């Protein structure tokens, strides 16, 4: 089924009793489907979406665990997310696919043997091992209802930010937005660490593939080292480096990231 919505708003898909809700920026042509990672939802990606200079419709998925989509559910795993994404791709018919971080892992896995994917762009995909020692601490904090501690842990123990950075972040309007996004963190990180990406199959992806790396993360754990594994598995990929950026370009440099995403789509269209 082709995507035909012409007005901005929301579209819901349904799979196995779960709602998968997407925000839509209307346009013409093949849709661009964005898949955010942890600590992010469609709302946090609006600055990037607004800056993407393409005529295409842009659809941003609220993955499971993000209102108004459904909960993660029992038996949650990366494979569940991949099947969710494949379902949406089936409904769309064809799409350019972009994923960030955990969303990039999901996007690459969903692109395998998938004729609906016209191109795949991945910004710093993550894979196992990914901070496995932090998962029990996250689970304790979330089980206790201490989402402030969960946000602190993901920033300090996973992303490597200083306590001073987190203290300043806590004084900003972003903090109350981040708290509910932390609720699924333990299950999401556990899923990443339980999943073996099909890296040996990535070189057989036939659509144009683009990898995006923030230069501040190059060769550094956890994001740069994870990126290196995916880059080695994708020798055919075009590489875009974002100078002076780390893992959060969607927050810190949305226009630069939007330009990189548009360039990947233009390149894919030129190759067809």
Automatic annotation (TrEMBL):
Transmembrane segments: none annotated. InterPro entries: AB_hydrolase_1 (IPR000073), AB_hydrolase_fold (IPR029058), AB_hydrolase_sf (IPR050266). Residues 32-260 form the AB hydrolase-1 domain. Pfam families: Abhydrolase_6. Keywords: Hydrolase. It comes from the Bacteria. The keyword Lipoprotein does not apply. GO terms for molecular function: hydrolase activity. This is Hydrolase. It comes from Mycolicibacterium peregrinum. The lineage of its organism: Bacteria, Bacillati, Actinomycetota, Actinomycetes, Mycobacteriales.
């Amino acid at each position: 089924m082709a995507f035909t919505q012409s007005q901005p708003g929301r579209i819901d898909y349904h799979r196995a009793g779960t709602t998968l809700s997407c925000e839509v920026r209307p346009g013409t042509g093949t849709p661009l489907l964005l898949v955010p990672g942890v600590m992010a939802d469609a709302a946090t990606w609006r600055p990037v979406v607004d800056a993407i200079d393409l005529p295409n419709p842009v659809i941003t998925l609220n993955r499971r665990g993000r209102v108004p989509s459904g909960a993660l559910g029992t038996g949650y795993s990366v494979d569940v997310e991949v099947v969710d994404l494949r379902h949406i791709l089936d409904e769309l018919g064809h799409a350019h696919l972009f994923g960030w971080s955990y969303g990039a892992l999901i996007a690459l896995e969903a692109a395998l043997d998938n004729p609906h994917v016209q191109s795949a762009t991945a910004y710093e995909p993550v894979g196992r091992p990914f901070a496995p020692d932090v998962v029990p601490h996250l689970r304790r904090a979330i089980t206790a209802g201490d989402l402030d501690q969960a946000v602190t842990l993901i920033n300090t123990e996973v992303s490597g930010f200083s306590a001073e950075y987190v203290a300043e972040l806590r004084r900003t309007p972003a903090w109350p937005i981040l708290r509910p996004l932390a609720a699924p963190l333990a299950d999401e990180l556990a899923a990443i660490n339980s999943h073996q990406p099909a890296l040996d199959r990535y070189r057989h992806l036939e659509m144009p593939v683009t990898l995006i790396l923030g230069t501040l993360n190059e060769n550094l754990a956890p994001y740069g080292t994870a990126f290196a594994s995916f880059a080695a598995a994708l020798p055919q990929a075009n590489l875009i480096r974002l100078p002076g950026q780390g893992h959060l370009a969607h927050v810190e440099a949305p226009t630069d990231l939007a330009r990189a995403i548009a360039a990947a789509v233009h390149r894919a269209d030129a190759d067809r």
